[in-house]
Amino acid sequence: MKRVFKLLICIIPVLLICGCTKKVTKEIKLVQMEQFIIQKTEDDKIENYTFKNDKYEKITDNNVKDKYLLYYNEKFNTTEYNDSGSILIQKGDKNVKMPDNTEFIKIDDKCSRVFYKSADGDSYSYGVINIDDHKNINVDITLSGNCIDWKDSSTLVFYGVVNNQAALYYYDINTKKAKMAARIDDGFVNYLEVIGGSIYYLVNSYDGSSRMINLSDDRSASFNIEVPYKNVFDIKSINNTAFIMAGNSERVDLYFITNGKIEKVNYDFPKNIRQDSFLYLKDKDVYFIGLDEENNEGLYLFSSTDNEIQLKSPLEAKNHIAKNN
To answer: Which of 32, 87, 137, 253: disulfide with 128, CB 3.0–4.6 Å?
Structure first.
């Protein structure tokens, strides 16, 4: 792998992110922004920056500037913390309160519907809420973990059990019926994400091996290959190439899969990748937070066109790219 060490003249001296310790309410706001976000937390105060045209710009929008961003897709989801224990979703002038004890949500690409998983005693209940009219639709499935995503605004894809068969299934919100998408007989799925209609999922087999699979309507984009990792933390895809941040609790690396072959991107430059950060894909360039041998962090870019890694900017303390699609 060709390595390029490149510094910017103009940098932000401190960018860090750390977990909030308060018991919280999560308020998710959908706000339009243009570029990916690097988040900074210091003394329980959060500040957000965009990185655009090789420069950092502090966000001044009151809905975003000091909020912890869970996820964004052109429209940003941000969280505010308080004591009530509920999740509130705001889209424009519409507000939706999620059911009590909601532990996981997934908003569709159009920001029109949200799937939720809510604790109900020793079990879970599932549903979908229309953001515009607040209609609550029961979802009758048996889900494994959080392995679920939107195939489109009317269809969920999930890994779970139907009629005693563990498999990947489609669930039609309107008919409330599940249809098998792929059998899983030799292992289990612990990661699933839909990008552009393609279903990416990781199967950890009982024999100790792992396979990364892309189930796509476009056969030329589909693949099923053995991979050297057990956990996936994020994935991006463009032009039949998947960029995957994967590894374990001690080391995370960047890989890409194209033409049915997998290649590791980073070895000692950077030495590691921040696990709780995410990737940002612009054209064929992938941004990520990397760590050197002394655990100093930096904003790195992998150019798949030139097949090289660049250090765009050194960063002090801890840093976090917000999840995005």
So the answer is: 137
Omega before 270 within 30 of 0, i.e. cis: yes
DSSP-H helix ranges across 163-233: none
Q: CA angle, 297 as apex, 294 and 303 as ends, to 5°?
A: 115
| Interatomic CA distance for residues 119 and 125, integer angstroms | 6
C-beta atoms surrounding 10 within 10 Å: 8
Pairing of strands 187-195, 2-4: unpaired
- Higher-confidence residue of 158 and 24: namely 158
From CA 259, how far away is CA 94, in angstroms rounded? 44
Instruction: Report the alpha-carbon distance of residue 288 to residue 153 in Å, rounded.
Output: 29
Cβ(299)–Cβ(319) under 8 Å?
A: yes
User: Would you state the pLDDT for residue 20?
Assistant: 33
The amino acid occupying position 134 is H
Question: What is the DSSP pairing of strand 177-183 with strand 55-58?
Answer: unpaired
57-69: pLDDT as tens digits = 888 776 666 666 6
DSSP β-ladder status, 223-227 and 210-215: antiparallel
Instruction: Name, in order, each residue with C-beta under 8 angstroms of 319's C-beta and a sequence gap of 6 or more.
Output: 15, 16, 17, 38, 39, 40, 274, 277, 289, 297, 299
14 by DSSP, 3-state: which? coil
Reference 71, options 14, 111, 112; nearest CA is 111
Half-sphere exposure of 86 (CA within 13 A, CB side): 10
Run of H or E residues at 29: strand 26-32
Instruction: Please list, in sequence order, all residues whose beta carbon lies within 8 angstroms of the beta carbon of residue 21, skipping any fewer than 6 positions away.
Output: 44
